[in-house]
Automatic annotation (TrEMBL), chain B:
Family: Belongs to the binding-protein-dependent transport system permease family. CysTW subfamily.
UniProt keyword annotations, A-Z: Cell membrane, Membrane, Transmembrane, Transmembrane helix, Transport
GO CC list: plasma membrane
GO biological process: transmembrane transport
Compartment annotation: Cell membrane
Topology relative to the membrane: Multi-pass membrane protein
Protein name as it appears in the record: ABC transporter permease
Source species of the chain: Muricoccus nepalensis
Domain ABC transmembrane type-1, chain residue ranges per copy: 67-273
Length: 363, 285
């Protein structure tokens, strides 16, 4: 019931959006204790890092956690899952248990607006060589992933796959069953790119134009996928020959020798982000933990194994040659893609989804 | 002085109270974890004293169409389950000890596997290059793969497989209660087997049929993973739209309104099923 209450409060807050934003701005403008000028606060015996768990937790343990424990002799305890409601409740209670937490993609904007996060202390966390998208005031971008095109290499050998969405839409030159996600996110962007909108002119999205373009591809979509494992499965089973999907899933198939490859042209980049819950007692050590996460050598371990590469450009120096072209953050791939505008989707997601549902129903 | 009738009544009342007290913890749990949240949900849907959410949920073409489709799919699943389950239940009720054990084991085995895993198994079986289509092609029975997946047919196959036990078990239980001497007497009096089935066994098992139908129908309405995966995105159930509102957009008042409309539709249908089979319940010996 508390969780239900939480969400009710969230919704009520949503209505008072303007007030809340104003409050957030005010809080951000207030002078904050300059952490760096202070001597390091006493060491706790442990910090708590909350993330999504799974295969990732395993690699984190071997890299970031181990390095933090080595540098500072403070134990790292990890918890999961990522839970926005819980973050809110913790901050409101005034004593967050988490020192650092991962934040789900679209929730980062909300977390900032609701003033749930400590500002990042750039005198501790060195972001100077990060790209602009990785230099936020409150959220640390740990890695990037992309929704890109997966294809069968036996159907499109010798680099003959469609490159970009205009070619994906061209069913005469590139015949075969296709799969797109059953969701407006990414697909509206892809449709607009197919219709000739340049990468840097996507937002705000022209929904009318996007749906008109989607009408043209609809008969050729054999499957509208709904879970991340599906596109990989569909390609392996040869149910379709072209499918959009999260690059990590295709990466795994390619590494295991399946006839599947990824084309990043027009791919949609998204970031995994971390923040320090506002009011946590170990905030200083949280900043130190995020600093450990900027270590390019450790980021490279993560990228080599799961393809989720960090934004520190130096990480590329430690990545295996055969892995590099498979990473969304490799410089040669980065330029072909766009960053999904999370703010636009937070604002317009519900409207776009409803229109998407109507559109699907008509088909 | 109380009459013997009075004391008997007091005794009966006391016994009733005792039984009520024994049941009280369960009632309390149901009240706390079910009735109270449902009431909260109802109140959430009219939050702010506005009926706009209901207006949208009950009148907007999108939601009306999806609700009607969901009810239709639930009815189809229920019908197919009934047709498949009845013979199985009859067989189980007459099977020997070994047959019964094997039958129940086969029936309950899928319960130990997650619905998600079973749904993925269907993807492997029913796909264009799946086991079924490949075998049929290898045997030369078909030239082009049959469209078994990513459409309504695929959704029905997947849902029926998951829900079948919920239909078999109540019918089986009802059939066990039918006195076999009744059929024997009917046959002794010269009724052919089909007539004794139609006039005796079938009517006496209707309470199980109605319980099974109600269970399967209601559970069908709540499905969203199976139709999302096996329908290839072309089958939209109202539960998927509710889930979107709850999880993605945090629009709980609208989700509550949609749920309430679904709950109302379900209750109406439940009442109809009850009414259709009510007469037969009294006939149970």
């Amino acid at each position: 019931m508390t969780e239900q209450g939480e969400v009710v409060m969230t919704i009520q807050l949503k209505r008072r959006g303007i007030l809340r934003t104003a409050g957030g701005l005010l809080a951000a403008a207030l002078p904050l204790p300059a952490l760096a000028q202070r001597a390091a606060p006493p060491k706790p015996d442990r910090i708590v890092v909350n993330a999504s768990g799974g295969a990732m937790a395993n690699i984190f343990r071997r890299t970031y956690f181990a390095e933090f424990e080595r540098r500072h002799s403070i134990r790292v305890v990890d918890t999961s899952p990522v839970d926005f409601g819980k973050l809110r409740a913790m901050v409101n209670s005034g004593n967050p248990e988490w020192t650092v937490t991962e934040i789900g993609g679209q929730d980062a904007t909300r977390a900032k607006e609701m003033n749930l996060l400590e500002p990042l202390d750039t005198s501790i966390i060195d972001l100077s060589n990060y790209p602009a998208v990785g230099r936020d005031s409150h959220v640390y971008v740990s890695s990037a992933y992309s929704t890109a095109l997966g294809y069968r290499t036996d159907v499109f050998p010798n680099n003959s796959q469609p490159k970009g969405w205009a070619e994906f839409w061209d069913v005469r030159r590139f015949p075969g069953a296709r799969s797109l996600r059953n969701h407006p996110v990414d697909n509206l962007e892809f449709a607009l790119l197919a219709d000739g909108v340049p990468l840097d002119k996507l937002y705000p999205l022209d929904m009318d134009r996007a749906f008109r373009k989607l009408d043209a591809i609809r008969p050729h979509i054999a499957v509208w996928w709904s879970t991340g494992a599906q596109p990989a499965q569909l390609l392996v089973d040869k149910e379709v020959v072209l499918a959009t999907g999260w690059n990590g899933r295709f990466f795994e198939l390619t590494r295991r020798g399946a006839p599947v490859a990824t084309d990043f042209t027009g791919g949609s980049l998204k970031s995994s982000v971390y923040g320090i819950p506002r009011g946590t007692r170990q905030a200083y050590w949280g900043q130190q933990f995020l600093q450990v996460m900027t270590d390019p050598r450790l980021q490279a371990v993560y990228a080599n194994e799961l393809s989720y590469a960090g934004l520190n450009p130096e990480a590329m120096n430690f990545i295996a040659d055969d892995v590099r072209p498979l990473l969304p953050t490799a410089p040669e791939n980065m330029g072909k893609q766009f960053w999904l505008d999370v703010a636009w989707w937070t604002e317009n997601g519900a409207r776009a989804q409803e229109r998407w549902n109507r559109w699907m129903l008509r088909g | 002085m109380s009459s013997p009738g009075d004391s008997r009544r007091t005794l009966a009342r006391r016994r009733e109270l005792g039984l009520f007290l024994l049941g009280a913890p369960a009632l309390l749990v149901i009240g706390l974890v079910f009735a109270w949240p449902v009431l909260r949900l109802l109140s959430l849907s009219v939050e702010g004293g506005t009926l706009e959410h209901f207006e949208k949920a009950a009148l907007d073409e999108l939601y009306v169409t999806v609700l009607a489709d969901s009810l239709k799919i639930a009815a189809m699943v229920t019908g197919i389950c009934l047709l498949l389950a009845y013979p199985v239940a009859v067989w189980l009720s007459r099977a020997g000890r070994l047959g019964l054990a094997l039958g129940l084991f086969a029936l309950l085995l899928p319960f130990w596997t997650s619905v998600l895993v079973r749904t993925y198994a269907w993807l492997v079986l029913l796909g264009r290059n799946g086991v079924i289509n490949r075998s049929l092609r290898d045997w030369g029975w078909i030239d082009a793969p049959l469209p078994l997946l990513h459409n309504l047919g695929g959704v029905l196959i997947g849902m029926v497989q998951v829900l079948l036990p919920y239909m078999v078990l109540p019918i089986y239980a009802a059939l066990l209660r039918v006195d076999p001497d009744l059929s024997r007497a009917a046959e002794g009096l010269g009724a052919p087997a089909w007539r004794s089935f139609l006039r005796i066994t079938l009517p006496l098992s209707l309470s199980g049929v109605s319980a099974g139908c109600a269970l399967v129908f209601v559970l069908s309405l709540g499905f969203f993973i199976t139709p999302a995966l096996l329908g290839g995105g072309r089958v939209i159930m109202i539960s998927m739209l509710i889930e979107q509102q709850v999880r993605e957009f945090l629009d709980w008042p609208f989700a509550a309104a949609l749920s309430t409309v679904l709950l109302a539709a379900t209750l109406v249908i439940y009442a109809l099923i009850g009414r259709l089979t009510r007469g037969t319940r009294h006939a149970t010996p």
